[in-house]
Amino acid sequence: MTNILALDASSLYCSVGLLHSGGFDFKCNQSPRAAARELLPMVDALLKKAGISVSDLNLIAVSAGPGSFTGVRIGLGVAQGLGESAGVEVIAVSSLAHVAYEASLATGKQAISVFMQARDREYYFGSYQLFPEKSEFRVITEQVVGSESIPHSRLTHKLANDAGDWVLTGDALQNLLEKGLKYDAGSSILRFTYPGVSSLCELAELMKKSGQFDAHQVAQANYVKAALDYSKS
Q1: In degrees, to the nearest 5, what angle opens at C-alpha 200 toward C-alphas 191 and 72?
Q2: What local confidence, expressed as pLDDT, does residue 233 receive?
Q3: Is the dihedral of CA 165, 119, 176, 106 positive or negative?
Q4: Long-range Cβ contacts of 108-112 (<8 Å, 24+ apart)
Q5: Measured distance CA(167)–CA(127) in Å, rounded
Q6: First and final CA of the chain: distance in angstroms?
Q7: Residues near 233 by Cβ (< 8 Å), separated by ≥ 6?
Q8: Strand partners, 128
Q9: In the chain, which residues have pLDDT < 50?
Q10: Structural domains of the chain in order of their starting residue, each with its CATH number
């Protein structure tokens, strides 16, 4: 059984989850400033409850943003410190990809577009595909766009026209729909909720199995600043 610790301090919530032989346990603090003082105590409590130590972990997953600047850095620092102290691999997971992966699990759809609020009149846009038969979760694109140039969902169809109907979600989606964002008739809207650390464990394990991360690369914050197109990689 794989033991996976997941840390997420990238949003309004500070969450820690532990997947282990006895099941899955998690702790969540809804204070936006709780990460600095609560993250390590929550980790210690979950490890103690499961009867394991950091050295028993097979993987540490951490949300790398985009999101709360301070929270992301604290989460990465804790994850790296734990990983280095016990020789455990650390995977930094895009928070946009995490939202998309949980949306895919919730809907059963394989193609997801995510719209999240960035800076004033700017938005994070990400497009993703899940290939269950290949145990692969693919990032098509992650970019920052202005409200006047939000990609139409038909663009994502061109990037991955074998994906079927798309699901659109994200905390900025409703605002963008009110601004006139259009989408294909075959696509659907999923009400946004912050993803849980259980799916963060699953996504990190999927990324490791499919070779989508370099174990020798230091986990870094995901500062999405410009168009990053992964469709040809």
Answers
A1: 90
A2: 38
A3: positive
A4: 109/164, 109/165, 109/166, 109/167, 109/188, 110/163, 110/164, 111/156, 111/160, 111/163, 111/164, 111/165, 111/166, 111/167, 112/166, 112/167, 112/168, 112/169
A5: 10
A6: 32
A7: none
A8: 112, 139
A9: 153-162, 227-233
A10: 4-94+195-219 (3.30.420.40), 95-189 (3.30.420.40)
Give me the count of residues in the chain. Answer: 233
State how far the Cα of 60 lies from the Cα of 205, in Å rounded to an integer: 9
Residue 98 is classified by DSSP as: H
Q: If you write DSSP's letter for every residue of 158-175 in order, what string do you get? A: HH-TTS-SEEEE-TTHHH
Convert the pLDDT of each residue in 130-139 to its tens digit: 988 878 899 9
User: Quick check: 74 and 10 in contact, CB under 8 A?
Assistant: no
pTM for this entry? 0.89
Is the Cα dihedral 178, 182, 186, 190 positive or negative? negative
Sign (positive or negative) of CA dihedral 174, 207, 10, 139: negative
Contact between 43 and 78 (Cβ < 8 Å):
yes
Q: Which amino acid is at 161?
A: N
